[in-house]
Amino acid sequence: MAVAVLKSPLGGEYHGKQSERKPAGRRRVFVQTDTGSVLGIELERGDNAHTVKRKLQLALHVPTEESSLTFGDLILKNDLSAVRNDVALRLTKNVMHRSSSMPCLSPTGRDLQHRDRSGPIEILCCAEKCSKTKQLVKEAIVAIKNGIDPIPANGGLGGAYYFRNPKGERVAIVKPTDEEPFAPNNPKGFVGKALGQPGLKRSVRVGETGMREVAAYLLDYDNFANVPPTVLVKATHSVFCINEGVDSNRIQNRRQVSKIASFQQFIPHDFDAGDYGTSSFPVSAVHRIGILDIRILNTDRHAGNLLVKKLDNVGRFGQVELIPIDHGMCLPEDLEDPYFEWLHWPQASIPFSDDELKYIERLDPIKDAELLKAELPMFREACLRVLILCTIFLKEAAAFGLSLSEIGGMMSREFHGMEEEPSELELVCVEARRLVDEESLSDEVDEEEEEEDGSENDLEQFQFHIDCEEDFSQTKQSKVNYRNETRIGSFSVPSLNIGFKHFPPSSFVSPKGGSRRSPLSKLDESPEEDEMEAEVEESATVSGQKSAVHKLSTSFKCIGITGKHQRHGGVRGDCSSSGMNRRSAEEQVQAGASFVKLSDMSSQEWGAFLRKFKGLLNDAFANRKDMSMNQRHRLGTSCQF
């Protein structure tokens, strides 16, 4: 489990002092297996994926057959030129074969442990942007060398450790990626999956929450939302958990093990948001945290990860500061249902300030994605698309005049009984995807029609020959012997039974007028729903895109996802149980699944999708505004803040 940095393809030692001056052209990478084992490797010029896997096999005694070396979305075949210095790679099994007699393999050779001369903590990514964290790392290293060990944290579902400075004060919270919930070395019994498999959220993989913690800090420009400094590190210590047997929890039997982990500055605080009255929270602090949560589609913003720090130390309800932590469930690979604790707080209904609007206006989603790709190159493309989409949504909604509460409400799904309905954001995405698919189909049809026009011209030419042959045959009866091969002008027609079976009449019927199914692949539609969809498309043609979004929401209601007509200001359609096959979302959409996928689009389709998406937003915002006005009218002025 410990890191051993190898100098030669087949072995050797690496001493920590040499890492400060790497030979030109060399890079160091940290490779993690799907069971949590970590190996630091000094890459030679001629190294490729095969030699890296060979080093893993020799050093860690793990099988590498039927395994791939991955770097985010990229599967490394031979060329390692895309891999930069000090990044984390992963060895992933192509096919999972594990019997009851074959436990997870973890390195147990003590000869490997004493060869590790690297430092106890090494920053893997974002070192240039985390100068404050560098100082914390130095303090933690000095403390460890002085015998001040990290302290395990009791809360949460995953493994976490407080690292201290030489004075014994807590300076950082460290969360190993292989101790996350469901990960192989989770210390609290929540195990059962390998790194890279779906975790607590289906679109957030086990072992990938640490880099999301770092991403939230990188995206919090100018410390706008007050996210504590965070980096990704390789940390080595005996306090970490290794699930190898019943004796593994005994300190005296523990050995030095290395983990890839998030390293976040520890912030002393007095409460969390669940222990403190929310009415005393500053409006600006709630807005700033909410703006970040919307950009990164935070699916886990609960009261426990909003720390409260008193600023005046006078009484319980004085001035306070909010510190957002635990961003491991942000930036999922698909549109998930977010959870915003602040959604119904009164502060969220107050309009954005001018400074907040200027901050939102300056946000550039493309540059945000490029930043994450540069600093955290293992980030998956699907996550970056979610970031881009949600940032565009935030910018357009704020410019339209929506409040934080209204924007968060449009992103959140609702439950009615046991039925889940898509959010308004997802409905817009579904409609945008449908428009892109229709446009793509139209282009394909145009190409087919061009080919068919050419075929029809050929058929007309053949028909011309046939007509001429018939006239010629009639003339031939009154004349003496003609050749069997007849010539018309310069064209020779040796045989007139061309065989029109190659050109069936149906092949010339244009499908342009045919109906298209909704691209919502997760939902199976009944024949009655097809009729509903036809009515939706007909109405969209007459009423435009605004009607299309509304009608689409009505069609969802009629397949068991009820109530969306109220959110869009529509009229309840006739969806009685007679003749209507009602099915709940639980039956059609897996828990945590997305109603529309962003990851399966090509680059060209993604660009077209964003254009359609932006074009539909103003109508969706207008519907939300109308609904908010109606609610205020029913509730009266007593609920205005």
Automatic annotation (TrEMBL):
PI3K/PI4K catalytic domain sequence ranges: 147-444
Compositional bias segments (type: Acidic residues): 526-538
Top EC class, one word: transferase
InterPro entries for this protein: P4KG1-8, PI3/4_kinase_cat_dom
EC number: 2.7.1.67
Listed GO MF terms: 1-phosphatidylinositol 4-kinase activity; ATP binding
Tagged with keyword Acetylation: no
Keywords associated with the record: ATP-binding, Kinase, Nucleotide-binding, Transferase
Highest taxon of the lineage: Eukaryota
Transferase among keywords: yes
Region (Disordered): 1-25, 438-458, 507-545
Bias kind Basic and acidic residues: ranges: 14-23
UniProt family annotation: Belongs to the PI3/PI4-kinase family. Type II PI4K subfamily.
The protein's name: 1-phosphatidylinositol 4-kinase
The organism of origin for this protein: Nymphaea colorata
